[in-house]
Amino acid sequence: MHDKTFKYVPFVTEVMTARRPKLSEPDMEGDYADGKYKTEATASDDYTQRFQQEIQTFIGLNFADTKNMYVPWKETKEGAIAFIFASPKKQPELVDAKGNALKQGIIIRDGSLIRIAGVIVAWEKGMKRGVSLWPDAVRVIKLAMGFAAAFGPPEEGFDGTCHFEPR
Asked: Which portions of the chain are predicted below pLDDT 70?
């Protein structure tokens, strides 16, 4: 492969659990902010092995020497494998379990159950080379609720959606 050349193959994951997702908005804060739409995701042991094998097969088809190569997964503190999905430039299409576009303001949180469609990309840039997972679309199977969900159903009282003019 030549410098800045990409080879790719499409993928669609099974249901995975999102970890530190930045899919509703790019990652713009913190030590590792890079302006990308990204998430890590974990899956069942069976699917993790199958997806790793799919990626390894792709690596074998695109690189003669597979030493010192970036792979798109890491081991978590809990000992699970987390796949790393990151879009280099664009926000992935975000849809619900029925395929409807997510409404503005819906935030995909840690623990949400998702499926991801995208491409496995082989790349070389100078002395660096590897494989990345670029997400094109994310289907939210089950949206993890925020802390406010602990309050239960709505209550009588202040309604922040009402607009009024102060006197």
From this structure: 1-5, 147-152, 159-160, 162-167
